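check this:
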Amino acid sequence: MHFVSDMNALEFYEALDYLAINCDTFSLVDSNIFRSGFSVHLPPIKKRLTYYLIDRKRVVSWAGTQILVRYENKKPIEHVYSCCKDSTQILKKYYKSFFDIEYQMDISFFKSNQCVLFTISHESILMVDLDFWKDFFDNTFCVLDKGKQG
């Protein structure tokens, strides 16, 4: 995986178009859903994506993250959605960056159950699998750095 930095809004929209064509699913994980100061209600983006919802489950690990949680009702909730032009259009309508999604909400995209992009939002980390992305980043202003993760 490679770190990506300096992705502008246009490149974000182009990345979502590429993901819509080439991915099967994406997930949103809100790691603060039941902590003090955070609403237990669905944020607007998850309400808009309800039609594309495939699965919803409590998790202790997701792409790029693993946490320790003592109680089942304290585990973050992962929402898995169908990745298609219409679902990514919803993301494009509301956001200009993978980090605009919601405060501390991570997003991951998958092709055949293999993660090809994920964020660790609270650290402003965006990572991609360059085998999947091929030459997409050749024509962008993004900066790529080899990551330590698989």
Q: What stands out?
A: The longest strand covers residues 105-111. Residues 9-22 form the longest helix (14 residues). Strands lie at 2-5, 25-30, 53-58, 61-62, 65-66, 77-82, 105-111, 114-120, 125-128, 143-146. Residues 1 and 149 are 6 Å apart (CA to CA).
